């Protein structure tokens, strides 16, 4: 896959996309070039226009099903518990937060001395 990406980068950069060009791109990106895959790729695209190859590939991709098949079913309901159980009621203590004092958005304290 990195060989194809390197070939496309070479073509975008105006290079011929030779085996040496592809090796340089892969090496510059920190990858390790695979000689056999590069040779096979160069042989496959030799004499072909890259734009025509991309167009043919896109035509083939239109038949590939993509996307999700919908969501899964909902979860099951809870079981009916023992009817004799008694729940304890707990008192909930709510902490009331006091709001900080209101301040003018521009830092003024309400006096009309500001530039705004």
Blueprint (SSEs and pairs):
Blueprint: H1 2-12, H2 19-28, H3 35-45, H4 50-61
Helix pairs in contact: 1-2
Walk me through this protein's architecture.
This protein has 116 residues and is an all-alpha fold. The chain contains four helices and no strands. The radius of gyration is 34 Å and the shape is elongated. Helix 1 (2-12) crosses helix 2.
> Alpha-carbon distance between the termini?
60 Å
- Name the average pLDDT: 78
**DSSP E strands, number:** 0
Q: Sheet with the most strands?
A: none
Global outline: elongated
Instruction: Calculate Rg over CA atoms.
Output: 34 Å
Give start-end ranges of low-pLDDT stretches: none
- Count helical runs: 4
Strand content: under 5%
- Specify the structural class: mainly alpha
Q: In which range does the helix fraction lie?
A: 25-40%
Query: What is the chain-wise order of helices and strands?
Result: HHHH
Can I get a quick summary?
By secondary structure, this protein is mainly alpha-helical. Helices cover 38% and strands 0% of the residues. It is built from four helices and no strands.
């Amino acid at each position: 896959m990195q060989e194809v990406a390197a070939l496309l980068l070479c073509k975008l950069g105006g290079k011929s996309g030779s085996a040496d060009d592809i090796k340089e791109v892969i090496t510059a990106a920190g990858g390790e070039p695979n000689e056999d895959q590069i040779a096979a790729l160069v042989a496959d695209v030799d004499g072909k226009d890259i734009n025509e190859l991309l167009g043919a590939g896109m035509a083939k991709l239109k038949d590939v099903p993509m996307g999700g098949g919908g969501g899964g079913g909902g979860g099951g309901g809870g079981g009916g518990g023992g009817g004799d159980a008694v729940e304890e009621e707990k008192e909930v203590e709510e902490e009331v937060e006091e709001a900080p004092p209101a301040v003018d958005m521009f830092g003024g304290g309400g006096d009309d001395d500001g530039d705004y």
